[in-house]
Design brief:
The chain has helices spanning 12-26, 29-47, 209-215, 252-267, 292-304, 330-340, 356-367, 385-403, 417-426, and strands spanning 2-5, 55-61, 71-80, 86-94, 100-104, 107-112, 117-125, 129-132, 134-141, 147-153, 158-161, 186-187, 189-197, 219-225, 230-236, 273-279, 284-289, 345-350, 372-377, 408-411. It is of the alpha+beta class. Helix 1 packs antiparallel against helix 2 and helix 6 (330-340) runs parallel beside helix 7 (356-367). It starts with a strand and ends in a 5-residue tail after the last helix. It comes from Haloarcula onubensis.
Length: 431
Amino acid sequence: MTVRSTGRWRGIAAVALCFVAVGVLTDRPATLLVGVVGAGLAAYPRLSRPPTVDLELERRLADSRPGPGEPVTVTTRVTNTGGRTLADCRIVDGVPAMLSVASGSPRHAAVLRPGETTEFSYDVETEPGRHQFDPATVVARDITGAHEVETTVAAGTEIQCADAVPELPVREQPNGHAGRLVTDEGGSGIEFHSVREYRPGDPMGRIDSKRWARTGELTTVEFREERPTSVLLLVDARAPAYRAPADGRPNAVAHCLAGVEQLVSALSETRDAVGLAAFGRELCFRPPGVGSDHETALWELLATHPAFDATPPGHVRAGSGADAESDGDIDQQATLLRKQLGSDTQVVVLSPLADEAIVETVRTLAAAGHTTTVISPDVTAEGSLGRRLARRERRLRLRALRGADIPVVDWDPTTPLGTVLLDERRRRWSV
């Protein structure tokens, strides 16, 4: 909660004293009276106190699980639970960074007496992913307008817009283990691998009955074995990554966060261990794990950790409490991350590839033995010379990573990530 002076009555005391002086010198009672009244008005705000803000917020969604592109009506109710009237209460709802307002307005103003409730509605256009509403920002002024209190009110609302990710882009490890991608070792699985001599204890269901009927020889069928893998989803949330194709459009970090949410949802349906990390204001790291408790912890990190803030530096998300101007050193954060990573953990980096630093970091991860894949939302645009240069530089970075045998998914955010990954799989980009 922040309390500050608005300065609305600034200068009125000087004007009042001027009128008093002129009235005395010219012996004009009317002018003197104006000065006295002005002095009283200047003193009045000093006698008032900042308002006490005690609010409850309730947010209702017409559909919490809409399809992509479907508008959803959001109804927000704010109740004054305090004992004082809020003469000037202004509310800005915390619309998720990836969602745009289709109609209506998330801004509202009202006079709230104790126990009174105000309500407003607006429509948002949905995008694929899981979108958490930020706390609503409330600014309340006293009746004089001289003091204002800024605070936030949370309700924990989210919209889940389905966009199935067909398969996480995990790759075969150097040791042959590759999670849902089959290994080169025989065992129990679904894809034929080889036939070997029967050994006592082999399951009856894996005996090649056709060969036994034809030759009388007992043999056992081996299948390519599947093993769960360990995947770390790494978000590039440094200051250079907060780029957008135009003012008012979602920035690249917002797209990366939406992509991570879809990948976490996809992994929750598998046996793979998934972890979460981010470079940015500070290093965030949650080691890969499985289970419902671990998945809940990942969602909590995405919703609350300052490293996963879709708001650009200099504009701290309400209630985050982070120093928006700070941006950690990527070399130091990458070093700390490598020390905590397991040797067999694959890394999926989500980054717009806005500078050379992240390219070198990805190369270093790959050189350290971590199978690395990059998913890069393209937020570059045509237009000015600077924009065209940024687009060309990004293309060169994509080419450099691919030249180092690091697969890169070039993601146009206007296309759902699930569709892009499906197309990439069909083109056999993963080798």
